[in-house]
Amino acid sequence: MPEGSRLGRAIAIANQKGGVGKTTTAINLAASLAISEQRTLLIDCDPQGNTTAGIGFPKDPARRTLYQALMLKEPLESIILKTQVEGLDLIPADRNLVGAAVELVGLESREYQLKAVIQQVKDSYTYVIIDCPPSLDLLTLNALTAADSILVPIQCEYLALEGVSELLDSLIRIRRTLNPGLAIEGILLTMYDERTTLSRQVASDLRSFFGAQVFQTVIPRNVRLAEAPSHGKPIHFYDIHSRGAEAYINLSKEVMSSGEKRFGKGAGSPDS
Predict the structure, then answer these.
(1) What gap in Å lies between CA 219 and CA 233, rounded to an integer?
(2) Which of the four pLDDT bands, split at 50, 70 and 90, describes residue 147?
(3) What is the mean pLDDT of residues 103-124?
(4) Are 154 and 206 in contact (CB under 8 A)?
(5) Angle formed by the axes of helices 160-177 and 138-146, to 10°?
(6) pTM of the model
């Protein structure tokens, strides 16, 4: 393992707004980290199961998923799947997670159930990437309570700044009540089209407002990137030469670099 890395760094990919590239980012960041020889666990925490399908596992009613781990306390050894990417494992999701969001309400320490699940295997991985639902429900709260940091994808469109401000208000409340150590991994600009004035203006506004918390890497609006999940492949296996693949490889390098800074190699921190 490279010097400066730390076992079990959990990163939640979250935004209350849908359609901003959360699932695309979860799949391709996790794959990029694994390709960089960082053992990675990808957790699909969304009942829609798009991350599970997008990494190559079509719907299967017989498959054990995160629901069994959360609500039935089944051991993760019977749930974790090996993906097509060497070094990348998956805890899948399915629509049963809708039931978990309701059933969790009655549990003691209901916001800490996912954290307890991850603790079983956290030290076996360098990174744990959690794809959250597009809402601040109990599943998302569980993810943010279990995470060391939050990565926020933001589509370069009108009102983007307003949406991220709402999310960061929620982050402050979560820090105060559930997870005081939750850091901001970074804000990621997605679906960026350098040809449009709007994309450039949104990027400029976000960098002006959030400064170094915005990743240098931007994810371009890219047809190959949009097509890859329907083929059940990360972008690296669908079109390694695409601009989307290059962008996610660059993002993984930034994430690894920020981890080295945070845990003692180099100066500075992405969180302030």
Answers:
(1) 17
(2) very high
(3) 93
(4) yes
(5) 70
(6) 0.92
